[in-house]
Please model this.
Amino acid sequence: MTDASAPPLALRLRNLSKTFSGVHALEHVDFEVRAGEVHCLAGENGCGKSTLIKVVTGVHAPDPGAEIEIFGARQSAITPTHARAMGIAVIWQDLALFPHMSVAENIAFDTMVGARPRLVRRRRDRKAAAAVLDRLGERLDLDAPLNTLPIAQRQIVAIARALMGEARLVFMDEPTASLTQSETDGLLAVVRTLSEQGVAVVFVSHRLAEVLDIAERVTVLRDGKLVGVFPTEGMTQARLGELMTGSLLSHEVMAHDRSGEPAVLEVEGLSLAGKVEDVSLTVRRGEVVGLTGLIGAGRTELAHAIIGMMRPDRGTVRLDGKAIAPKNIREAIHAGIAYVSEDRLSLGLIQPQSIEDNTVIAVLDKILDAVGLISPTRKRAMVSEWISELAVKIGHPSDPVSSLSGGNQQRVVLAKWLATEPRLLILDSPTVGVDVGARAGIFRTVRRLAEAGLAILMISDEVTEVVMNADRVLHMAGGRIVGEYDPRTTDVATMEERVYA
Amino acid sequence: MTPMKRIGNAVGPETLPLAVFLVVVAVAFSLATPLFLTGRNLSSMAFQLPELGLLTLAMMVPILSGGLNLAVIYTANISGLALAWTLIAFGGPEAGVGAFVLGSVLALAVGAAAGLVMGLVVAYIGAHPILVSLAMMIFLRGLGEFLTHGGDISGFPPFMNVIGHGDLFGVPVPLIIFAVAALVWHIMLRRTRHGFAVFMIGSNIRASEYSGLPTKRTLTLIYTISGLICAVAGILMASRFNSVRVGHGEALLLVTVLACFLGGVDPFGGFGRVLPVVLALMILQMLSSGLNLIGANQHLSTAVWGLFLIGVMALRWFENEIRQRKWRR
Model:
């Protein structure tokens, strides 16, 4: 048993700098992780978090002058193999697992590869894999092919694989980005278990609430420089957000009363077998209506029924008082509805294609010349108008959209839909995978659009987000709308309890 | 944007290396044999290229959309057959221009119909284009061989020679047909809504649907147009050989795929331009004619084509590596 007042250090970095062709990714950064501690590394995209992880795991060599100590031992040069041998493991966002291999094979992969004689010993590996899962307190089918598991369980497999290699210091890069709230809770429980077993965990996340929940201390980086190390005790999300972005973020409830405005969207008695039950709701001109609830509550399905992706069994949808029943998205666009999908990476944008093509994809009709061909001039004009309107930071409009950061991609999605001049904008989980500063930007844009008269239905599973940014909040569960809240009179904590219960 | 960059954007990054290659091949053969730079050889190349060229255009757009059309050759054959029978029915060598026009319309209809069926199956049933077009290819081949008993249909009116062997102000008519088709393809891909949708669908069909593009209609149209240009190739082949035989040009099928990949069309769909594909076709034609002139075995030229593709892939890989190294920080 070590002395609790001075636990040994798992990792100690002093004066760490890393320059890439003249650009400082990290500048004189100090960083410490205690053994068995859950430590959060916070900062906006591009602040140097990934570079730091890559230096510690031997992917990048630091600039001269840095001191690195791992479990008390001074390191001069680290290679990836060396890092793994010392018990350092990284769980990257994309997990780096083998989708067609079984759970047991994935967990035991490193022992299978490194073993001598070079034979696969299935029974031994299975047993070892089972033991590791047991240690995490998780039950998974060892023989299930990995690609049949939900993301949350794959995450567990990745953690188990790291533990197989006797990891004592685990880096997790945004492990919860694609998880639902309850899955996140499950993952956080596993992280606590690891910590109790003496494994140090460095946790990278954009979700400040969970950072404050799980970590004991948080190290904040901004533009490659250390802002400071703070205990999470007594820290608020607002303060942490400010430290990360270096600017004051507005955290006031923004709600306005729009009940006097004319209704833009009226849904009455909408039902979709097994998904949506008898839903009625109204979104008025200039109003932002938040729709929250757990994943599987039927939020996305409701949106899909409104835009014609799914055909409702019963119920009516009216837009500006006129009944509509779009058979596909084209008809919905034509009627004046824009739907920004939850899955920005694979459904919202066509990643390999250019920024300009992604911007004009839904409005080709508006950029035709006299003979009906796409006019390059009009296309360019349309693209530059929206890029400046939404302040998208891009290199050249012909660059692929995949070259943009998450926040800028989100803006391109918005530009694409706003170009259709919709009456109603449906935003499905607009901030998934977007960092704090960019989130604030998105909500400012949403507010501005509402002020200009657009009706907005905003779906999100983060209660804080909808309470802060919507005029009214609807709570959906089991396919029904089970409650309506006024953000000005609702306490976030009570509401979270009800939604996440 | 600098003027150079603007030109680069308009023709695409694939064009310059191919143009250099084209010049190198032309210079090499000119030095190797005095027969290469003769009017006779140039005109013979100009007469041979368009067939393969039209079939390559038929292959290109399905590949851009993330698919493939394995039925291009037999669609051309069957369309040619429709023309041949019409001509025979109107007296063979004595058939008039009206019969030729009627036959050509029927040929285009047959080609478009074959493409339409494939397009509908790909779009609405969601079957993989390789399977659908393979099935269509086998069906058309069987049907054609059954109808012709494996033989030739020949004896066409002499005026068809103009299409197959004539020239207009010294430019071979087949080359004019191909040039017009290539220009139409370029405009279709770069400037029409249909062309825009082809690229988007090739990269991500679900995201295209979510963005409001008519994905099913576009897929159907892609294969229909592919069948239509196959029919044009079929008419041209009938005019050049004064006969139609099912299986004619069979060896060209994979060459059309080769030409697309050489021309920088992404094998996974979403990217590609007409101009570099045309350059690739010219290089292939030069390699085959040039090797023939210096007395190499015809099979050797096929082998050289294969080596050439491997060489181009290696070059692109190098180019990509260099670009990445420049970007990597």
Notes: Residues 352-420 of chain A form one domain. The longest strand of chain A covers residues 9-20. Chain A touches chain B at residues 20-21, 23, 25, 329-330, 333, 339, 341, 346-353, 357, 361-362, 364-365, 368, 372-374, 398, 416 (CB under 8 Å). Residues 181-196 of chain A form the longest helix (16 residues).
